[in-house]
Amino acid sequence: MSLTEPLRYSNITTVCQTLLANANTLDPMAAEYLQTHGVDLQYEIDRAELGTLKRAGTIETLLKEIRLPNHQADVLWDVTLRDGKIKSLSRCERMQQQTRAALNPGPSLLLPSLCHPHIHLDKCFLLSHPKYDDLEIVQGGFGEALELTSEAKSRFDEDDLIERGTWLIEESIAAGVTHMRTFVEVDTTVRFKCLDAGLKLKQQFKGRCDVQICVFAQDPIFSPSKNHPEGRSLIEEALSREGIDVLGSTPYVEESPDLMKANVDWAVSTAVNHRKHLDLHLDYNIDPETPPLIDYVIDQLHQDWISKNQGKTIVLGHCTRLTLFAPDEWHQLKARMANLPIYFVGLPTSDLFMMGKPDASSGGGHRVRGTLQIPQMIQEYGLKGAIAINNIGNAFTPQGNGDPLSIASMGVGIYQAGTKEDARVLYECVSSCAKTAIGYPQPHSPLTEGAPADFVLVRNGTNDKIERPRELRTFQDVIYHPPSNRQTFMGGCSCS
Fold first, then answer.
1. DSSP secondary-structure letter at 10?
2. C or N terminus of the chain, fewer CB within 10 Å?
3. How far is residue 49's CA from residue 235's CA, in Å, rounded to a whole number?
4. Interatomic CA distance for residues 449 and 466, integer angstroms
């Protein structure tokens, strides 16, 4: 490309790389030409070569002419990163903005990074892996999913777990994820295979994604089964390992209400004793004749959690039985929780696949959503919540991918949440609210000076097949139309 050609912003890096390849010093004529178009060539060369700028004996990263979603769309900002945080945000001069507007049809949009608050690392992509080709869904029910997954678990080995787990984490990072809570099962079938693989992946992706490990009891631990009674001792042994942050359990798989309560008692006391976060798969039904267990859980948490496990959160996943609550029941639940750090996580892809299937004789016209209405719970009842992907590519959830924005976008239809405020809430449900739920407290405004430099940069204006591609400028834009061209930053460093 000749420097006499009309210059577009998408060509700047190519220009700089060409100059770097053919000259050892800065070409004054090239610098002068580019300066007339509002481009600082030395800055662009530094970025193309190093991705960083040196300032006063340290390393700073400067992102120039960036859009911020919580500011006017026609205002551009220079964002300086230092020591893993946002050092400064400075508004570009108006003349600079006007010059760049003519040159660059699509300034990049800076967004808080994304988070998986609930995802199963060991069970992902079973339906697309050749090792499990014979394990096909026939009926699509919960019992069948348990059976197929149990058979798959009997075949797990480290190479397989690492391979599928790597697929999931890499795909998630590319989508903008910097934090995730991953469930790894420990029981008499897999023993510590899933845990060992999870810990290796946690270390492997350190610095690119914070992989939080939840030791998870999927199978019954009190009901008569092959996992009883050794399952509990295996879980407690696993909790003593370094790198474990969370205890997870599934009370509803027990065979009676009394044993479900025993599961809850054990999970709460064990999390407190080991100083861990707690994550319960709870009340996974939409049967009005089945009393919800959540009140019992709250009563048990009130006994010791605040006094003995300060700083640790409680996440309650699924909770689809709560979708039958009337408004007064929601208000009573909020009052009953009081100051407990409880967060609800809705899991729409799994819930919609599993819950509310119509009777075969009904004609199929009546299909309830059967998933927690998280935006409504936040906006109307003052509860805390997030939404998550849960499973990908297995009998519990055959569909989906590792992109949290895909599920936030789907939430517009699921929750009938199409307003500007709804879009902001949906984004936070896969970003700052999700991180806070799993124990990574976030500032009220994640894109402010001093905040962690964990974000997604949406590269606008880089579609070579379209002369002036449509720009994404706001939370609404990215929720309605999740972008494909993203760059993920964690601690101020690019990791995708």
1. G
2. N
3. 48
4. 35
269: helix, coil or strand?
Answer: helix
Under the banding of pLDDT at 50, 70 and 90, the label for residue 470 is confident
How does residue 34 score in pLDDT terms, banded at 50, 70 and 90? Answer: low
SS (HEC) of 318-354: ECHHHHHCCHHHHHHHHHHHCCCCEEEEECHHHHHHH
Residue with tokens 């998870």: 216
Joined together, the tokens standing for residue 252 give 């509803």
Q: How many residues does the chain have?
A: 496
How confident is the model at residue 70, as a pLDDT?
79
State the average pLDDT over residues 253-264.
97
* Average pLDDT for 359-363: 68
Return d(Cα 413, Cα 477) in angstroms, integer.
15
**7 pLDDT band (50/70/90 cuts)?**
very low
Task: Report the C-alpha gap between 198 and 121 in whole angstroms.
Answer: 8
Q: 479: which DSSP letter?
A: H
Overall average pLDDT of the 321-350 stretch? 97
Output the CA–CA distances (angstroms, integers) from residue 484 to 114, 215, 427, 478, in the order listed: 14, 33, 16, 10
- Spatial separation of the C-alpha atoms in residues 7 and 254, rounded to whole Å: 66
Nearest CA to 123 out of 182, 174, 181 is that of 182
Nearest to 370 by CA among 384, 357, 381: 357
- Mean of the pLDDT values across residues 248-268? 97
pLDDT at 466 over 80: no
CA distance linking residue 94 with residue 88, whole number of Å: 18
Q: For residue 209, report the phi and psi dihedrals to the nearest 5 degrees.
A: -155, 135
CA-CA distance, 108 to 459, in Å (whole number)? 5
Whether pTM > 0.70 for this model: the answer is yes
Extended beta strands in 223-326, E state = 244-249, 277-282, 314-318
Burial class (CB in 10 A: 0-12, 13-18, 19+), 334: middle
- Hey, what amino acid is at 276? K
Q: pLDDT at position 373, please?
A: 96
**Edge-to-edge, what's the strand order for the sheet holding 114-120?**
114-120, 177-185, 210-217, 244-249, 277-282, 314-318, 342-346, 385-387
